[in-house]
Amino acid sequence: LSLLFIVWLLPSPNSISISYELSKPWEKEDLIAPFDFAVYKSDAEISAEKNNIKQHIELYYLNNDSAFIANEKLFFEQNKLSKQEQIICTEIFNTLASKKIIELPDTTLSETNPQVLIEKNKTVEVAHLRDFYTLAQADSFLNAQIKTQIDDKSTLHLTEFAENYLTHTLFFNKKITVQNLQQQVSNVVSIKDKTLKGQSIIK
């Protein structure tokens, strides 16, 4: 019984009593970790990390210009154009097809120029929102080109006809974007750092 009492009074080998004043030099011997232990992030740090992911999430898009091509064909079939108008409108549609018309996501963007990932033929291309026209920008481009290259008499009816045939060529893939966001958020770990037994904690 006496032996048990003495052992109880002895300090535990896994407990350490340390007194340290911040911003002061460490004046004792190196403090060595007696066992493995982790340093955990605070709730505020974890929340901030997750919010940062949400604010800078990559947007996934599918490149599909089939509707645009079909609409362009209909435009020339359904409208009687002069030779000059045909040439100018062909150039305009070719420029828009090359530049591409992007569908804006149905969410508020924290960045004015977020990164987008475009899927086509099982490959993914990295780009940015500003690299493409929105539908409104494509319409403005079309109107400006027609007004500067065709006489005033034909301009009004031609712009009204042509803008009705514009459509997106890059479509927002909300499902994949949300899945990627959820995966990145779930990958946020609670451990900030880890110290192994025998490593110096303070030198």
Short description:
The protein is α+β, with helices and mostly antiparallel strands and 203 residues long. Helices cover 45% and strands 17% of the residues.
Write the SSE topology.
Blueprint (H helix, E strand, L loop, with lengths): L1 H8 L21 E2 L4 E4 L2 H13 L3 E5 L2 H13 L4 H17 L15 E6 L2 E6 L6 H15 L2 H12 L6 E3 L1 H13 L4 E5 L4 E3 L1
Parallel strand pairs: 3-4
Antiparallel strand pairs: 1-8, 2-7, 3-6, 4-5
Provide keyphrases for this structure.
203 residues; alpha+beta; four-stranded mixed beta sheet; two-stranded antiparallel ribbon; 7 helices; 45% helix; rod-shaped
The strand line-up of the biggest sheet is 5-4-3-6
Radius of gyration: 32 Å
In angstroms, what separates the terminal alpha carbons? Answer: 41 Å
Provide the low-confidence segments as ranges.
1-10
Number of strands: 8
The major β-sheet equals:
4 strands, mixed
Q: Give the SSE string.
A: HEEHEHHEEHHEHEE
- What structural category arises from helix and sheet content? alpha+beta
Number of helices in the DSSP assignment: 7
Strand content: 15-25%
Helix content: 40-55%
Shape: rod-shaped
Tell me, rounded to a whole number, the average pLDDT: 82
Description:
- The protein has 203 residues and is of the alpha+beta class.
- It contains 7 helices and 8 strands.
- It has helices at 2-9, 43-55, 66-78, 83-99, 135-149, 152-163, 174-186; strands at residues 31-32, 37-40, 59-63, 115-120, 123-128, 170-172, 191-195, 200-202.
- The strands form 3 sheets. The protein has a 4-stranded mixed β-sheet with strand order 5-4-3-6. Strands 1-8 form a two-stranded antiparallel sheet.
- β4 (115-120) and β5 (123-128) form a beta hairpin.
- α4 packs antiparallel against α5 and α5 (135-149) packs antiparallel against α6.
- The chain is rod-shaped.
- The two termini are 41 Å apart.
- Mean pLDDT is 82; it is low at 1-10.
